[in-house]
Design the sequence.
């Protein structure tokens, strides 16, 4: 439910004020009913009624957010704009019965832009604008994280209920909303009759009191704890440069270069914690973690164990032993960029896109399993021989080694790809008596080639999902794809 | 403008009034209606869960399969197998299996046993209506923690399962010596505090809330914990063995076991049975009684042999159908040697072993022991008596011969609690005892070999392994197998789980570095010096 009222007021010829005031109310409620049937009475009849053992469970979810907000837009002529906003949210997911804690958070914001080219416009300049903004936003969490609760299993033991604390994560009745503040400055410039356009942004964003599920040792009884923990900072610049080197009636060339650099730092985690592993490779010997003082998403693996004299320590049966779990760099590329070129000549159009990412790391479980199963080139060394005084065979040696020392599976994920080439033809509209405004046939080729890559056997973009960025396993190699596109506009 | 302003202000005020300060219902909204709070929950239900959890994981017998069967049963030469992933049979290291008892995510001892029992102890503390439940909970927690520390050594104990109460997500590892001191204190205190006139714990599936039986269980458990210290601290062992004289379990009726239930599928069915019936693979066909164990029974004409072992139970590797004509005759029983495989290599492939004729000719656990709704034995009168026999032998506390006879008798007679078909006739037991009387000059060997045989038939191979590590009996010959991780020695403990390197790194590093002999299969726990 949302309500918003607002009205513009003009003061004189130059100033316009627009105050807005609104409120919103959102309730999200769901209930999942799970029925399980086991041990079918008559084989082959797949009906719940046919199950001898039935169990049923309900999983509810319920939350409410209430908000009020207001804004004031000020504009002076056509070149100075200021917007001030404020908002307050209240979250039900922070509430605990019997406690009167702070369920709300207020966020102020202000932004301004100045189109200076309206006042000062030398010949080379087509357009010029600077902008700056400050904003703060907040968030709460999912329902039912503030109290310890007990639940019964869906089955009984000879009629006796089976009960257990149902929280997977240690609940927290002191939760506060998280908040993130962002300061941003930027400029948009255009030169030489808009033939060169530049958009630059610099930002600094700091998140604090983030509500995280910090992993716990299972010996605590819980898999994690719900905590207001963690401060993180992102600083970066973004750039987009578009140039039209050639622009004639017969031929146009548009070249566009974008780039971004982000420096991320984890400033703090839960009290007393300097490291928090949040994703584990299926191999069991590669991880992604947050580490205080380092960028988010550190790819971690086991180093060798070293003797005091610096030599590599071994296990009882002579295989290099497992050393410390060590961070080898962030899974998130700090530097990203792309370069696209479009050529139009008459009815023909050619587009070429190259992009790249630099500086990220990836843990290759493909290489791990290839080592364990003897499918990796490195495992050919002494394959028919024996290792160590215990004379263990190559399969045992390499299998144990892969489990003990996994740092070799961490690779530099930087790459440059020839991402896409398109060749299109736009049919003259006259062919269709102008009934069709536009008809274009294009040949599209994607993932054509790596122009640069550092990983040996895998696609550096092979992480299996967004949550586990930095962990790869058995990714299907990227295939070149060729397609034919027909688009029409009436 | 004059006409617009009042309307505008009024509307704005209305929105503000509606939207602020309406958070009274938030407490209800953020309370899960399908769960309970400590105030309206019955803590007895936590006891049932912890007792069931002690028999193994609800998730497909997770740690029973890996820690009890794949490792303990084969290392201790109770069972034997050629299944390739049964790493314990050959002293190979599979870290995810050796970590299984400790557990990961929602599986294993800390999640399924320590969590509910610790919560029970905490949430019932000082509550009159839970007077006995609280004490039973303390005894139960000691039982649970003893097995964890026996398998790993120094482990999280004082802060274990306390996440909600302390907020500690990286529990410290307590020294096993300190853990044992506290276990003895806890069980002594809790047993003494049991009150037969107070509440009857309704969630108790060991004794249906019988407090006298819990008192005897507590004293027998105290004896077992104390006797674990015979190598490292005999004075303490003697002190507690003296304290419990006359107060321990009195008969098979005092045996603690959990009777399983078919209706809850994997969650409530017998853990050992699920695996030995082949639910997860071909264990039914390829897992057999060990040659060491069957030879032990055969050498003395043990009347248990024809009860616990059958040949020809499974006739094909692809079938899970039991042969109704399985043969229980003692004379045909034959154990399978440990350390064998299906590799085709001479000397290692089972078919190259002189004992080999066919798989069905090797003895399997009898069908009456591996029923889906059959019992899991927790702790028995027979164990208690054999421990008393050892205490008598060592320190003159009563008659070793009497306790030995009572222990061996119970170790035979209790089998009827599995299934009537496993009943050993009383006359057969006396014949056996007459033929194999207690001999004080080999007392410790006799007592502990019988203890090993008893816990093997209980399928409590954790206990077989611990008591062997403590006593050194029976004398076992390690298998010889290439690529083993122990220099050919029978393992002495499980290494710490790799998951602790990420979730509890500082405490893990210190504990791992402190294991005498190294954090591996050959390192030693405190009482196994």
Sequence:
């Amino acid at each position: 439910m949302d309500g918003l009222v607002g009205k513009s007021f003009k003061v004189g010829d130059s100033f316009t004020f627009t105050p807005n005031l609104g409120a919103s109310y959102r309730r999200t409620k769901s209930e999942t009913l799970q029925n399980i049937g086991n041990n079918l009475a008559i084989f082959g009849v797949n009906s719940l009624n046919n199950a001898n053992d039935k169990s049923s469970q309900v999983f509810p979810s319920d939350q409410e957010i209430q908000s009020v907000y207001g804004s004031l837009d000020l504009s002076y002529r056509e070149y100075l704009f200021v917007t001030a906003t404020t908002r307050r949210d209240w979250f039900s997911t922070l509430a605990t019965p019997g406690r009167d804690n702070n369920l709300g958070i207020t966020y102020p914001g202000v932004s301004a832009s100045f189109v200076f080219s309206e006042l000062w416009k030398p010949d080379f300049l087509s357009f010029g604008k600077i902008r700056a903004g400050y904003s703060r936003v907040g968030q709460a969490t999912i329902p039912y994280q503030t109290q310890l609760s007990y639940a019964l299993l869906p089955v009984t033991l000879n009629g006796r209920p089976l009960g257990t604390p149902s929280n997977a994560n240690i609940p927290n009745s002191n939760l506060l909303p998280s908040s993130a503040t962002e300061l941003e400055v930027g400029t948009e410039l255009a030169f030489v009759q808009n033939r060169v356009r530049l958009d630059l942004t610099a930002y600094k964003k700091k998140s604090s009191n983030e509500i995280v599920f910090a992993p716990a040792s299972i010996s605590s009884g819980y898999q994690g704890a719900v905590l207001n923990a963690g401060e993180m900072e992102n600083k970066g610049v973004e750039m987009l440069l578009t140039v039209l080197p050639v622009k004639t009636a017969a031929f146009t060339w548009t070249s566009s270069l974008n780039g971004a650099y982000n420096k991320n730092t984890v400033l703090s985690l839960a009290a007393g914690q300097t490291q928090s592993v949040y994703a584990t490779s299926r191999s069991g010997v590669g991880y992604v973690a947050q580490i205080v003082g380092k960028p988010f998403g550190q790819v971690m693996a086991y180093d060798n164990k070293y003797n005091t004299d610096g030599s590599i320590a071994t296990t009882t049966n002579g295989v290099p032993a497992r050393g410390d779990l060590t961070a080898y760099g962030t899974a998130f590329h700090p530097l990203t960029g792309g370069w696209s070129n479009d050529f139009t000549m008459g009815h023909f159009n050619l587009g070429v896109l190259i992009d790249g990412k630099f500086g990220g790391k990836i843990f290759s479980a493909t290489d791990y399993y290839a080592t364990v199963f003897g499918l990796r080139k490195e495992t050919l060394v002494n394959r028919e021989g024996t290792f160590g005084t215990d004379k263990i065979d190559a399969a045992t040696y390499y299998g144990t080694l892969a489990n003990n020392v996994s740092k070799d599976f961490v690779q530099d994920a930087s790459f440059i790809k020839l991402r896409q080439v398109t060749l299109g033809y736009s049919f003259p509209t006259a062919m269709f008596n102008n009934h069709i405004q536009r008809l274009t046939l294009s040949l599209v080729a994607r993932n054509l080639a790596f122009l640069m890559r550092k990983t040996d056997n895998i696609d550096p973009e092979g992480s299996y999902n967004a949550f586990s960025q930095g962990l790869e396993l058995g990714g299907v190699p990227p295939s070149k794809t060729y397609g034919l596109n027909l688009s029409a506009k009436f | 403008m004059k006409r617009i302003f009042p309307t505008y202000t009024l509307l704005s005020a209305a929105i503000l009034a509606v939207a602020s300060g309406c958070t009274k219902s938030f407490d209800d909204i953020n309370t899960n209606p399908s769960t309970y709070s400590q105030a309206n929950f019955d803590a007895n239900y936590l006891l049932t869960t912890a007792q069931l959890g002690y028999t193994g994981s609800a998730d497909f017998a997770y740690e029973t399969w890996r820690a009890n069967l794949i490792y303990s049963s084969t290392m201790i030469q109770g069972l034997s197998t050629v299944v390739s992933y049964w790493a314990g049979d050959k002293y190979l290291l599979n870290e995810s299996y050796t970590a299984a008892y400790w557990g990961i995510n929602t599986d294993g001892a800390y999640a399924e046993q320590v969590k509910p029992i610790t919560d029970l102890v905490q949430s019932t503390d000082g509550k009159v209506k839970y007077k006995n439940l609280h004490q039973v909970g303390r005894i139960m927690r000691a039982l649970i923690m003893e097995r964890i520390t026996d398998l790993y050594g120094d482990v999280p104990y004082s802060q274990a399962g306390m996440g909600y109460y302390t907020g500690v997500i990286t529990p410290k590892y307590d020294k096993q010596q300190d853990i044992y001191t506290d276990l003895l204190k806890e069980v002594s205190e809790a047993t003494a505090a049991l009150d037969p006139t107070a509440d009857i714990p309704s969630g108790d599936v060991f004794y249906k809330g019988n407090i006298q039986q819990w008192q005897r269980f507590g004293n027998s458990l105290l004896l077992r914990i104390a006797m674990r210290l015979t190598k490292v601290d005999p004075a303490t062992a003697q002190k507690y063995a003296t304290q419990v004289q006359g107060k321990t379990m009195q008969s098979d009726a005092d045996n603690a076991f959990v009777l399983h239930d078919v209706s809850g599928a994997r969650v409530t069915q017998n853990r050992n049975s699920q695996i030995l019936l082949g639910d997860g693979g071909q264990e039914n066909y390829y897992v057999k009684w060990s040659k060491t164990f069957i030879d032990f029974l055969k050498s003395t004409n043990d009347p248990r042999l024809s009860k616990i072992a059958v040949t020809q139970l499974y006739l094909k590797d692809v079938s899970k159908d039991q042969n109704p004509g399985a043969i229980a005759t003692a004379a045909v029983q034959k154990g399978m040697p440990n350390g064998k495989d299906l590799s085709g290599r001479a000397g290692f492939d089972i078919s190259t072993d002189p004992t080999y004729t066919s798989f069905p000719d090797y003895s399997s656990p009898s069908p009456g022991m591996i029923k889906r709704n059959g019992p899991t034995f927790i702790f028995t009168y027979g164990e208690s008596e054999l421990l008393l026999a050892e205490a008598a032998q060592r320190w003159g506390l009563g008659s070793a011969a009497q306790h030995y006879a009572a222990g061996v008798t119970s170790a035979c007679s209790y089998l009827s609690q599995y299934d009537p078909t496993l009943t050993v006739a009383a006359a057969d037991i006396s014949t056996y005892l007459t033929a194999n009387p207690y001999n004080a000059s080999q007392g410790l060997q006799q007592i502990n070999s019988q203890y090993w045989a008893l816990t093997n038939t209980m399928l409590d191979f954790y206990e077989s392994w611990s008591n062997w590590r403590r006593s050194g009996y029976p004398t076992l010959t390690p298998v010889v197998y290439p690529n083993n991780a122990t220099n050919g020695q029978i393992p002495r403990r499980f290494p710490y789980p790799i998951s602790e390197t990420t979730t509890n790194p500082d405490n893990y590093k210190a504990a791992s570095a402190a294991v005498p002999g190294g954090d591996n299969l050959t390192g030693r726990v405190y009482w196994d010096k």
Notes: Chain B is about 45% helix and 5% strand.
